[in-house]
Amino acid sequence: MNKKFLIPLGLFAALVIFLAVGLTRDPREIPSPLVGKPAPDFSLPMLVGDKPFSPSDMKGKVWLFNVWATWCVACREEHPLLVEFSKQSRTPVVGLSYKEIQAQDQPNGPLKEAEKLQLARERSLRFLQRQGDPYTLSVLDLDGSVGINYGVYGVPETYLIDRQGVIRYKRVGPLTPQILQDTLLPLIQTLEAS
Amino acid sequence: MIPELGQFALILATVLSVLLGVFPLWGTLNRNTVWQSLARPTAFLQFALVLLSFACLATSFLSNDFSVKYVAEHSNSLLPKAYQFAAVWGGHEGSLLLWVLMLTGWTAAVALFSQSLPLNIVARVLGVLGLVSVGFMAFILITSNPFDRLFPIPADGRDLNPLLQDPGLVIHPPMLYMGYVGMSVAFAFAIAALISGRLDAAWARWSRPWTVIAWSFLTFGIGLGSWWAYYELGWGGWWFWDPVENASLMPWLVGTALIHSLMVTEKRGSFKAWTVLLAIAAFSLSLLGTFLVRSGVLTSVHAFATDPARGVFILCFLAVVVGASLTLFAWRAPAVTLGGSMGLVSRESFLLLNSVLLVVATGAVLLGTLYPLIIDALNLGKLSVGPPYFNLVFAPLMVPLLFVLVPGTVAHWREAKLNDMFMQLRWVGLAALLLAIGLPFVFGEWSAGTALGVFLGMWVALGSLQHVVERIRKPGRIGGSFWGMHLAHFGMAVLVLGITGVKSFEVEWDVRMSLGDTVSIAPYTFRLVDMVDVKGPNYKASQAHVEVLKNNKVVEVLYPEKRRYFSSAMPMTEAAIDSGFLRDLYVSLGDPIAGDTPSWSMRVYYKPFVPWLWAGVLMMVFGGVLAALDRRYRRRSVSPLQTAGEALSSAS
Q1: Beta strand pairing status for B539-550 and B524-535?
Q2: Chain B partners of A21 at a C-beta cutoff of 8 Å?
Q3: Residue B365, CA distances (Å) to A165, B20, B370 in order
Q4: What are the backbone angles phi and psi of residue B113, rounded to the nearest 5°?
Q5: Nearest-by-Cβ selection for B277 from A8, A18, A104
Q6: Position B357 pLDDT exceeds 90
Q7: Which is more confident, B229 or B138?
Q8: 8 Å CB contact of B542 and A107
Q9: CB atoms inside a 10 Å sphere around CB B634
Q10: How many Å apart are CA A116 and CA A96, to the nearest integer?
Q11: Would you list the domain boundaries of chain B?
């Protein structure tokens, strides 16, 4: 057999190997430069009450930081899992309602800040009342500035932050039961044990 | 009941495709003509059953049967009827069913239009197509059943993705699939020829019209997708080098090489092994495209809802089909004779150059598309490959390709004289050169890139025109393939001129506008005069009224919209476009901007020559259709003497 006619087969075999390895990877798993760095600080109004919240309030605790929005379809898919998680785990989950008020919510020109805040509170609360509230507390990021500091890429996003306030894990896109079981829960356990 | 009927029909069709894949092929091995003659009726019946299955799914959509999971996920009772029908292929499962419908349709068409072919060839071709069908039908039944029921039954469906609620998108997937699937016919002919060991001119002549028709569909499908992206996405772009776009471009590039290489095989009996390899590659790249789109290995704007099981299935299917084909190739191809000799300068050598350039271009696109995946697989990090790479690599390959196109069409077979060709083409070359130097000044600024684009476009256009004029002066009937070739080449020239024009002279303003504000792009002035709310069947929209003024006179009013579909939070942009012969005026409405007076972000674009892109694509499509309908492909039978002679020559 003439060897040169085997070249296409060889090239194709190499291609299949790469594709097979590619199947086991998730292209949406984007390594964040923030992992291993302290969580950026901020101060934002809470969903309930007048006090602002800042990540430094959580020092000494291992906690999850979940970025969500009522307008985000994938968040609705993720939501029941978070609710389930909050029932079964004592790890606090802080929710950040991201850019709740969009341009199309202001058909008659831009709303005042106070009006925006009120509307965002109403809508976020209604959502949590209907779908269940997994959050220990929630904050409102109306203009998305905190989202920029955290490099929010697509909602929902979830961060795991340790006792020293360092980000240990970041997930872009909805959490899945598998990620929760295989990655997050073991990581939380080791962090809480240390 | 109807969904179950559809499911049952699909299962029966799968059983038939197994029969089609086994018995006729077996019959060719033990020379059992009864088994071979089973191929045609099985192919027809298989198509009828898939058609029934498809009709059942369509009925479920049109009758708002939300107990079917797939319907509930992709339709809504408020959705207009036409889109309810189009929603059948609005998701993964249904689009696969459409794919299978087309595959069995092509199979039935081969069965119907192959009366002039020897029975054993028909049996082999239909058998190979049957085997391909088995794979796709099993894929649907195992991983992606569109007939699954849902309980409890939702009150209403989740609605079709608003991006897909558009006439362009209604016909884009069917056309593209016709092209992808059509490549499986070329593939089946190639495999049948490899199995029989009869790689000869007759094989090339049989598979040429099928390949050219498939190529035309693919061209049309890609063009439609580009057109849709241009006016629906609201960015004013028409090609993004997205992995899924690349997935359709690669089979097109190889398909283009294939239809040219088939010509050499038919006329001169050369390039046989190469042509077979191209036929296998074109179909393999179609399969690879399916894998890339549906497995989620790459991030793309087109990505379907992904499921690892689907990726694994397609990869195994791909490995089996392509692996087996290439093994067969490695086993059989060495026995293939080389065919007629060719000179260093001849039509064969130009067509060989065409093949090589197109295949290298395909390789470059493949590398760029898979590079992020390869780097990730080797644990070297994450990265993405963008338009700068593709433009840098692709354009330099297209320049020599377009240049050799013209001498390739006038060169003689076997041996051409450079001197004669130079004399024949010197005036065309000179005219193209003068236009390249002069025309850029007329439309704006002169730059080397613009001049090169104009030169290549004019070179191909004028070269084709001259060849047509010379041919008309000679006596004798001119066949469809001659007209088709030149129409397609002329279309390519129009496309190149269009791309050059839009890349060189487009003006894009992203501006903030309040009522009464104007933006000027000479000689036009755009004025935002009003913003109103409008209501569609299943959406609300803000609509801007933008007057276009020329010499202080209103020449056109444009109505771009920002739509909010009831079922989705994502706002959709409907750009307003005024098309002329030489330019598009393109306005799309962005978001309102906070401030004291109401204002909006607007994209006001002047896009010269964009209509030429679509015109060029259409000419290529019609050129392909004309060539495929050439009378000589429809002769009732092939002279037995001729085929016997070819069989002898390939056996020796």
Answers
A1: antiparallel
A2: 377
A3: 44, 36, 9
A4: -100, 20
A5: A8
A6: yes
A7: B138
A8: yes
A9: 11
A10: 16
A11: 1-160, 172-337+344-410, 507-611
Distance in angstroms (rounded) separating the CA atoms of residues B183 and B252: 10
What CATH number is given to the structural domain containing A187?
Answer: 3.40.30.10
Residue B626's SS3 state is: helix
A90 touches B at CB < 8 Å:
no
Tokens 């608003």 sit on residue: B162
The answer for B326, left when phi > 0, alpha when psi is -120 to 50, beta otherwise, is: alpha
Q: Given its phi and psi angles, is residue A173 left (phi above 0), alpha (psi -120 to 50 degrees) or beta? A: left
pLDDT for residue B289: 83
Q: Are strands B539-550 and B561-565 parallel, antiparallel or unpaired?
A: antiparallel
What whole-number distance in Å separates Cα of residue A150 and Cα of residue B429?
A: 58
Give the pLDDT band (50/70/90) at residue B650: very low
CB-nearest to A25 from B376, B569, B592 is B376
> What does the mean pLDDT of chain B come to?
89
Task: With respect to residue A184, please indicate whether it lies within any of the assigned structural domains.
Answer: yes
CA nearest to B326 within chain A:
A9
In a domain, A181, yes or no: yes
Distance between CA atoms of residues B375 and B284, nearest Å: 22
Range of the domain at A184: 34-193
Local confidence band at B649 (pLDDT 50, 70, 90 cut-offs)? very low
> In one letter, which amino acid is A45?
P
pLDDT at B63 over 50: yes
From residue B216, give the alpha-carbon distance in Å to each of B40, B135, B477, B488, B532: 26, 25, 24, 10, 42
Three-class DSSP category at B589: strand
Residue A132 has pLDDT above 80, yes or no: yes
pLDDT band with cut points at 50, 70 and 90 for residue B645: very low
Q: What is the ipTM of this complex?
A: 0.82
Q: Which residues of B touch A23 (CB under 8 A)?
A: 295, 297, 308, 311-312, 315
Structure tokens at B133: 């069908």
Show the beta-strand stretches assigned E in chain A: 44-45, 52-53, 63-68, 93-98, 137-141, 157-161, 167-172
The encoded tokens of residue B644 equal 């016997």
CB B179 within 8 A of CB B214: yes
Residue type, B384: S
CA distance A101 to chain B (A): 12
**Three-state SS annotation for B454-500:** HHHHHHHHHHHHHHHHHHHHCCCCCCHHHHHHHHHHHHHHHHHHHHH
The model's pTM: 0.82
Provide the terminal-to-terminal Cα distance of chain A, rounded to the nearest Å: 63
Residue A17 lies in a domain: no
CB B83 within 8 A of CB B538: no
Please say whether the beta carbons of B592 and A109 come within 8 A.
yes
- What does the CA dihedral B42, B44, B50, B56 come to, rounded to 10 degrees? -130
Side-chain half-sphere of B214: how many Cα atoms within 13 Å? 35
> Where is B509: in which H helix or E strand?
strand B507-514
- The residues in A 5-64 lying below 8 A from B, measured between CB atoms, are 5-6, 8-9, 12-13, 15-16, 18-23, 25-28, 30-31
What is the tally of structural domains in chain A? 1
The pLDDT confidence band at residue B652, using thresholds 50, 70 and 90, is very low
Q: What is the pLDDT of residues B263-302, one digit of tens each?
A: 999 988 888 999 999 999 999 999 888 888 777 676 655 5
Token pair of B503 as six digits: 């890349």
Q: Is residue A189 in some structural domain?
A: yes
Cβ within 8 Å of residue B149, ≥6 positions away: B3, B67, B68, B69
